């Protein structure tokens, strides 16, 4: 059993354990590489049928190719897809010019909380990885939030020897992280092995490509000539550029993600 086999088996176990342990679950699907791999793992875990809906928070500022890819895959895989936009915030003029963190909170964090409240989700399955960003390294596989989805990152239970805590107070919200132990390189090697479709924004055109995807105004490209999955894998073996180097909110505030995640960000 190689590393990818072990990671896949762990992720499938986590997905099944979450389905067994919690009530109503939803899976966040941003359309990025990580959540698309997670979608693939969910299909494997439940033999081609995903027993929970997928949730896409649409800020209206996403790169158009992402929306086209979302709709194409949702139709091909016959996904139960919830698309939600915080139209109250949009109609009141919310956008990146208000400040990246302010905008992220209104159009992502608040929108997600609206979905949780509307559909009564007890838990969400989320495609975060420890190696991607500092605050995510503080996460657990099964991560407790309070009723408002707020995260106390200073009080996280130990998860030793793959013993996961799944017994939480009734009413609290749970985030489940099946690919927390994967790296960016693992993701791309698995995409290659499984031939998983991903949005073509990741592949270089004219010496530029995206490594991390988000809203168009807040997501920049990196210099790269990697135009195939194999070339991306080779590039990642040698790069010293941070995966989120193109994300504007990270540059605006070094603790941006921790602040957002503390308040319920995905």
From TrEMBL:
Recorded GO MF terms: sulfate adenylyltransferase (ATP) activity
Domain spans labelled Phosphoadenosine phosphosulphate reductase: 26-220
EC assignment: 2.7.7.4
Keywords, alphabetical: ATP-binding, Nucleotide-binding, Nucleotidyltransferase, Transferase
Entry-linked Pfam families: PAPS_reduct (PF01507)
Family of this protein: Belongs to the PAPS reductase family. CysD subfamily.
PANTHER family on file: SULFATE ADENYLYLTRANSFERASE SUBUNIT 2
Name listed for the protein in its UniProt record: Sulfate adenylyltransferase subunit 2
Organism, as annotated: Thermoanaerobacterium butyriciformans
């Amino acid at each position: 059993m190689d590393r990818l086999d072990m990671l896949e088996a762990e992720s499938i176990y986590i997905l099944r354990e979450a389905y067994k342990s919690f009530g109503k679950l939803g899976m966040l699907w941003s359309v990025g590489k990580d959540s698309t791999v997670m979608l693939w793992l969910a299909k494997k875990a439940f033999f081609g049928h995903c027993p929970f809906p997928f949730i896409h928070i649409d800020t209206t500022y996403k790169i158009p190719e992402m929306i086209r890819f979302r709709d194409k895959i949702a139709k091909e895989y016959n996904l139960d897809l919830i698309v939600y936009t915080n139209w109250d915030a949009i109609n009141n003029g919310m956008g990146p010019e208000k400040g990246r963190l302010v905008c992220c909170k209104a159009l992502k964090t608040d929108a997600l909380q609206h979905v949780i409240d509307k559909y009564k989700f007890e838990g969400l399955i989320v495609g975060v990885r420890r190696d991607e960003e500092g605050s995510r390294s503080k996460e657990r596989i099964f991560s407790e939030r309070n009723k408002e989805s707020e995260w106390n990152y200073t009080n996280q239970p130990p998860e030793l020897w793959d013993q996961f805590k799944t017994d939480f107070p009734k009413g609290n919200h749970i985030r489940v992280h099946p690919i927390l132990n994967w790296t960016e390189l693992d993701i791309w090697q698995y995409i290659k092995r499984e031939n998983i479709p991903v949005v073509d924004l990741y592949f270089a055109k004219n010496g530029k490509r995206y490594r991390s995807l988000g809203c168009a105004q807040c997501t920049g490209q990196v210099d790269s000539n990697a135009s195939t999955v194999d070339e991306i894998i080779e590039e990642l073996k040698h790069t010293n550029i941070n995966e989120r180097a193109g994300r504007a909110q990270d540059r605006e505030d070094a603790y941006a993600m921790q602040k957002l995640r503390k308040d319920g960000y995905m």
